[in-house]
Amino acid sequence: MAERRSIEFFETQFQRQVREGDFALNPFEKLALEFVRGQVLEFGCGLGNLALEAARRGCAVTAVDAAPSGIGHLQARAAAEGLPVRALVADFDSWHIDRDYDTIIAIGLLMFFPRGSALNMLEEIKARVVPGGTAVVNVLTQGTTFLGMFEPGHYCLFGADELRRAFAGWDMLVDRADTFPAPGDMLKVFSTVVARKPLA
Questions:
Q1: I need a labelling partner for 49 at 20 to 30 A (CA). Which of 21, 33, 69, 183 fits?
Q2: Rounded to 5 degrees, what are φ and ψ at 59?
Q3: DSSP β-bridge partners for residue 134
Q4: 4-196 carries CATH number 3.40.50.150
């Protein structure tokens, strides 16, 4: 599996969060929650905090991640609460979205793949949102200097306006950039788009 370094990075992070009971939604998950409805795919769900909250609000959620500890934690929490969450471990080098959804969320995922693969995944997300449905996509962009979680040569920093251009013709609900400090006086620069697919 090509993204081994990123999986190890997040496995360590997820195990620490579980030990510390840190299940708060991050800022991008909080933003996404306003727009989730119906049949939801969270593509790269991590510990599943957003998936669980969406299910609590009446959504039927499929949650997919490459980190087994995150999926195991999500499965246990969803079962304990009796929530409609299907959680799957996937090899993103070969896994594909196999049906259409009302909402597809990919927060902090696409940048972990070479550019060609990342763009193909973005097109697959767009194709699998039903007409009138919503895509929530968040990526790191050029200007990011915190790169330690990436496999060398196996990542993609998007252009500052690349997501907006990718969703040309969709109803743009959110288009924002955010910069956060990272360890070692480095930066994470994010682009987030929430877009509604045209009905026609």
A1: 183
A2: -85, 150
A3: 103, 196
A4: yes
